[in-house]
Amino acid sequence: MCRHLAYLGPPLTLRRVLLDPPHNLIEQAIAPQELVYARVNADGFGFGWFSEDGTARCYRRADPLWQDPNLQALAETLEEPLWISAIRSATPGFGGDTVNAQPFAIDGLLYSHNGLIGGFRPQIRRQIENLLTPEIEAGIQGTTDSEYLFALVRQFLADDENATLEGALGEAFSTLETWLGDEMALLNILLSDGRRLVASRHAINSPCPSLYYTSDDDDFPEDSVIVASEPLTDRERWRPVPSGHILILDPDEPPELLAL
User: Fold this and answer.
1) What pLDDT score does 88 carry?
2) Predicted confidence band of residue 93 (pLDDT cuts 50, 70, 90)
3) Does the pTM exceed 0.90?
4) How many C-beta atoms lie closer than 10 Å to residue 158's C-beta?
5) Gap between the Cα atoms of 118 and 56, Å rounded
6) Which of 32, 74, 75, 188 has its CA 20 to 30 A from that of 162?
7) What is the 3-state secondary structure (H, E, C) of the chain?
8) In angstroms, rounded to a whole number, what is the distance separating the alpha carbons of residues 228 and 2?
9) Is the pLDDT of residue 158 over 80?
10) Active site positions, annotated
11) For position 44, what pLDDT does the model report?
């Protein structure tokens, strides 16, 4: 299990999103308030953004967030209209290597998964591999259930040029459910193509992990939306994403909730 967040709005320094809020990701790493399956998030971190040409970029480390000597300078310098960041508590059996830190950035997409997939090795992994083209499978660098799920989402997007981010997520969740049997899956996902951002709060055979969003917090610019596993500021300004829903964020539209 992990904690993650996303920002969509006017350009904002990474510091304003990642470090300045009272219950920022360092606080959520050391003293999370709603983490169920772990006590701390010290197995790596990362943040991602999009360059001007639309390429998805990320900075990832296997160190705890608070130990990175480069973070302060980067956070004060980098400014973007879209951020995705994650801190990791590694599922047993999945190494703490940098390649397993999130978010993942490939094929013009940024992705972060807060959750786990029961029975992933070997059954679910093999089922996913059977659906992947060699090109999609070649993009997998690590070993986690999170990255294989991302590959499945990318495959569904590649298979249908008219597929939406939320549609591919929904298809991945439905496909996964047919394989799980009595196993559980926790499926809080952040996914962006550089313009739109979707965030799921979903689970199969289990209660959903926590997820919140706000569009009227004075600590952030007007016309911005922030999504986070735990509220970054005063809880009264944040709304929970309903269980079994996808939150759809478009810079030209108000936030939309879609039932799965």
Assistant:
1) 84
2) low
3) yes
4) 15
5) 29
6) 188
7) CEEEEEEEEEEEEHHHHHCCCCCCHHHHHHCCCCCCCCCCCCCCEEEEEECCCCCEEEEEECCCHHHCCCHHHHHHHCEEEEEEEEEECCCCCCCCCHHHCCCEEECCEEEEEEEEECCHHHHHHHHHHHHCCHHHHCCCCCCCHHHHHHHHHHHHHHHCCCCCHHHHHHHHHHHHHHHHCCCCEEEEEEEECCCCEEEEECEECCCCCCCEEECCCCCCCCCCEEEECCCCCCHHHCEECCCCEEEEEECCEEEEEEEC
8) 11
9) yes
10) 2
11) 86
Name which of 165, 159, 106 is nearest 132 in CA terms: 159
Is residue 37's pLDDT more than 60?
no
Tally the C-alpha atoms within 13 A of residue 10's C-alpha that lie toward its C-beta: 6
Token pair recorded at residue 178: 């047919």
Q: Which residues contact 33 (CB under 8 A, 6 or more apart)?
A: 23, 230
Residue with tokens 């999170």: 146
What's the rounded Cα separation, in Å, for the pair 137 and 77?
35
Whether the per-residue pLDDT at 97 is higher than 90: the answer is no
Share of the chain above pLDDT 70, in %: 93
Q: Which two tokens stand for residue 31?
A: 């003293």
In the structure encoding, which two tokens stand for residue 224, read together? 């911005």
- Residue 31: what pLDDT? 72
Q: What's the burial of 116, exposed, middle or buried (CB within 10 Å: 0-12/13-18/19+)?
A: buried
